[in-house]
């Protein structure tokens, strides 16, 4: 619905995790991942070049370069600005999704 409203030029109140896919406001899109099917469940975001994961309480943060020769190596020490930006967005998306699951009646 946000994309349709954006195309039509209509103001809207977005109560979902959807967004206007034609908007140029977000230049670094991320996808939220909630992984419960591994030995150590975690939440994560994946972007164009990096994958950041952490425990639900914000501990055990790891950052991986997707296009590197060894993507399993944690490179968080090399990219503190990406770790901070992705961590804030990950926690925001995760907490929003939890809130919406229980409180969004529309």
Helicity level, as a percent range? 25-40%
Number of domains: 1
What is the CATH topology assignment?
Answer: Arylsulfatase, C-terminal domain
Number of distinct beta strands: 4
Overall pLDDT metric: 86
CATH top level assignment: Alpha Beta
| General shape | globular
Short description:
With 106 residues, the chain is an alpha+beta fold. The chain is 29% helix and 18% strand.
Secondary-structure topology with pairs:
Elements: H1 2-8, E1 31-35, E2 42-46, E3 50-54, E4 62-65, H2 80-103
Antiparallel strand pairs: 1-2, 2-3, 3-4
Index terms:
globular, 106 residues, single chain, Arylsulfatase, C-terminal domain
Notes on the structure:
With 106 residues, this protein is of the alpha+beta class. It has one domain: Arylsulfatase, C-terminal domain (2-Layer Sandwich). It contains 2 helices and 4 strands, in the order H-E-E-E-E-H. The chain has helices spanning 2-8, 80-103, and strands at 31-35, 42-46, 50-54, 62-65. The protein has a 4-stranded antiparallel β-sheet, covered by helices on one side. Strand 3 and strand 4 (62-65) form a beta hairpin. The longest helix is centred in the last third of the chain and has 24 residues, at 80-103. The relative contact order is 0.15.
């Amino acid at each position: 619905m946000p994309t349709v409203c954006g195309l039509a030029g209509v103001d809207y109140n977005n109560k979902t995790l959807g967004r206007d896919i034609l908007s140029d406001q977000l230049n670094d899109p991320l996808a939220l991942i909630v992984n419960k099917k591994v030995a150590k469940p975690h939440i994560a975001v994946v972007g164009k070049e990096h994958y950041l994961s952490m425990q639900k309480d914000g501990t055990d943060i790891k950052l991986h370069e997707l296009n590197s020769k060894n993507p399993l190596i944690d490179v968080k020490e090399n990219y503190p600005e990406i770790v901070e930006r992705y961590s804030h967005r990950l926690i925001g998306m995760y907490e929003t999704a939890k809130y919406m699951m229980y409180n969004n009646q529309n």
